[in-house]
Amino acid sequence: AYPIYTSGSTGRPKGVLTEQHCLSDYLRWSTSAYPSAAGTAVLHSPISFDLTVTALYTTLSLGGRLILATLDDGDPLTVESLRRSPTTFLKATPSHLSLLEALPEEFSPTRELMLGGELLLGRSLTEWRERHPGANIYNGYGPTETTVNCTQYVIGAGEPVDSGPLPIGDPMPNTWLYVLDEKLQPVPVSVAGELYVAGEGIARGYLHRQALTSERFVPNPFGPPGTRMYRTGDL
After folding, report:
1. Structural domain contains residue 1
2. DSSP state for residue 12 in the 8-state scheme
3. What total of structural domains would you count in the chain?
4. pTM of the model
5. Is 230 part of a structural domain of the chain?
6. For the segment 172-203, what is each residue's pLDDT rounded down to a tens digit?
């Protein structure tokens, strides 16, 4: 479907080859998970960033309205457009919360705020939730190699949350998570292990990086023959 470059935690860019079936599987889920994208979504990230996939393709698939804008200023024309058609869905990172708090209210979604790409602390949501008590918030986790997100934690409107790090939630449909030791054996509860992801969202591999592909995309001993899982490096 497309290649997207990501540096992950290494700082060295690598092209992730996302296949058509990966994107199709994600959109089948996202169009039901984010119904407010059928309204108005603000797209503020570049096309080369996989955060864009959700706002761009989910909104268009649902027949919603897409507003192209940035989150670093309150452009009067954008504000006027959002007054006529209020934002209902926005995907951003936790770092964007401080920007949203400084922008006109029209930039913040009235129904669903999807956050991902970074650790989310409950206390960072306090001020925004006080101003938008009717909105649901989603904390998503997923390396680019697993097609946008592979898990999600839902915070319903008015639901209390702890002040510290929030959970990454449950795996999406057609996705399996394994916490394994160095021998690819499941670790007991409360024992540290590495997170592996398997399922429909696993990318083909890295562009022109066969050795790295073999290192990170490994055979899945828990699935049907020929299936693979992605080694995230996250503990």
Report:
1. no
2. S
3. 1
4. 0.93
5. no
6. 999 999 999 999 999 999 999 999 999 999 99
